[in-house]
Specification:
Largest sheet: 7 strands, parallel
CATH superfamily of the largest domain: Glycogen Phosphorylase B
Structural class: alpha/beta
Number of strands: 15
Shape: globular
CATH topology of the largest domain: Rossmann fold
Strand order of the largest sheet: 5-4-3-6-7-8-9
Distance between the termini: 16 Å
CATH class of the largest domain: Alpha Beta
Number of helices: 17
Radius of gyration: 22 Å
Helix content: 40-55%
């Protein structure tokens, strides 16, 4: 077996930290994710890192030391941390570029997988200069890539493979430039879920324990960062419509983010604050899945929608907008696991993102934005009313969701990724 050099977290200039220590491994992979908040991309990097370590790879992670991913990696001694502070303009720092190049040349990884555009801009060229064989950029956000000279260089000459988590994400990458990267260098590998670990966590939370009777309140769940993409303010308006229609309901919102205070103020303005529980950040969502009856994802766009897979494993029906790859995960009809709803006519998720729909725009009296959304939200509220009194229908959707989710086993997804790197 070959000898490798691995970090013991001794600081060095420029945000990269490393000190030599000998380990014996056959293959070495470096995951580069400098994002500070926790999200689907960070969950994927941690799960993939652990999966590769279990397969005998030497695994290192370049993470921001203030990030949630960094904190979680500390729990797994089989993973090596390489703290890295990056910003949007870090690629302009020649000393940091040189430090990364020297790190990659010293460590000689077989593969580097990057997460953010900022990671790609600096770690990608450094890995190429160091002669790394597999330079992979994982695109998890179903938003268009700008057709710039830098992107044409990075996609065309630096990365060896583009990895997307869905067909919808792949299509969005190429929407501004179909020739940005050759088709044979793009791989679609969905996000996977560790089925055994997920089921074990549900069992610990008492998932199968007796819950409330059918006459109890309908418990609606939403989980995700509290930001404009996830659009939880729409869920509060749906809750208002349900309560006005005489439907007893509760809303659980798991997550934290920059819109937390804004959403709490909106709940008070709509007079639904007694029915809404803001759970904050939940490292383990098992109790959340145990307590809800239906999962409502109000995202205006998604990269993959990990929570829909988890909702399926927990046997919960899913309501969502028909955006990004969500039609790949949510199916209607007799064998369906939920309901999909079209965005208001003339609005696309990219346009919504640029316009920055806010809670305030939804609460104005007679505003055009309220009128635009009212029909869609009323339709969602009406469908939830139907489910409120139909526990058998909820159970059937939940079972169908479980069947759908089983196809996204992490082991299967990691087999596909590993095959690209051997």
């Amino acid at each position: 077996m070959s000898q490798r050099l691995v970090s013991t977290l001794t600081p060095n200039w420029g945000g990269v930290f490393y000190q030599q220590k000998v380990m014996r491994k056959n293959k070495h992979i470096v995951f580069c994710n400098s994002n500070i908040p926790w999200g689907g991309g960070e969950a994927w990097h941690l799960n993939a890192a652990r999966a590769f370590a279990a397969r005998g790879w030497q695994v290192s992670l370049l993470c921001h030391p203030d990030g949630e991913l960094y904190k979680r990696v500390l729990e797994f001694p089989e993973l090596t941390l390489l703290p890295l502070r990056l910003s949007r303009l870090s690629f302009l720092n020649p000393l940091l570029r040189m430090r990364l190049f020297r790190l990659f040349r010293q460590e000689r990884p077989d593969a580097v997988i990057m997460n953010l555009p900022a990671d790609l801009k600096i770690a990608g060229p450094a890995a190429k200069k160091a002669g790394v064989r597999h330079i992979v950029y994982r695109r998890g956000s179903a938003l268009p890539v700008r057709d710039s000279a830098m992107n044409r260089h990075l996609y065309g000459r630096v990365i060896t493979r583009l990895l997307t988590n869905s067909r919808a994400t792949k299509e969005q990458v190429l929407v501004n430039n179909p020739g940005l990267i050759e088709e044979n260098r793009i791989s679609v590998i969905p996000n996977g879920v560790d089925l055994a670990a997920f089921d074990a966590a549900l069992a610990r939370a008492g998932q199968h324990a007796a819950r409330k009777d059918a006459a109890g309140p309908l418990v609606i769940g939403n989980a995700g960062r509290l930001n404009r993409q996830k659009a939880q303010h729409l869920l509060l308006h749906i809750g208002k419509k349900l309560l006005d229609a005489g439907v007893d309901c509760r809303i659980l919102v798991a997550g934290e983010g920059e819109r937390g205070q804004e959403l709490r103020e909106l709940a008070r303005e709509l007079q639904v604050e007694k029915k809404v529980v803001f759970c904050g950040f939940m490292k383990d969502l098992s109790s959340f899945w145990r307590d809800i009856d239906v999962f409502v994802l109000t995202s205006l766009w998604e990269g993959f929608g990990n929570v829909i897979i988890e909702a399926g494993l927990a046997q919960k029906p899913v309501f969502a907008f028909a955006v990004s790859n969500l039609p790949e995960l949510v199916h209607e009809g007799p064998d369906g696991n939920g309901r999909l709803f079209a965005l208001p006519e003339g609005l696309e998720y990219a346009a919504l993102r640029s316009r920055g729909y806010s809670a305030e725009s939804m609460t104005g009296s007679g505003g055009d934005r309220v009128a635009v959304w009212d029909g869609v939200l009323s339709a969602m509220a009406e469908a939830l009313c139907d489910l409120a009194g139909a526990p058998e229908a909820r159970a059937a959707m939940g079972k169908n969701g479980r069947k759908m989710a089983l196809a996204y086993a992490q082991e299967r997804c990691m087999d596909a990724l590993e095959s690209l790197l051997l």
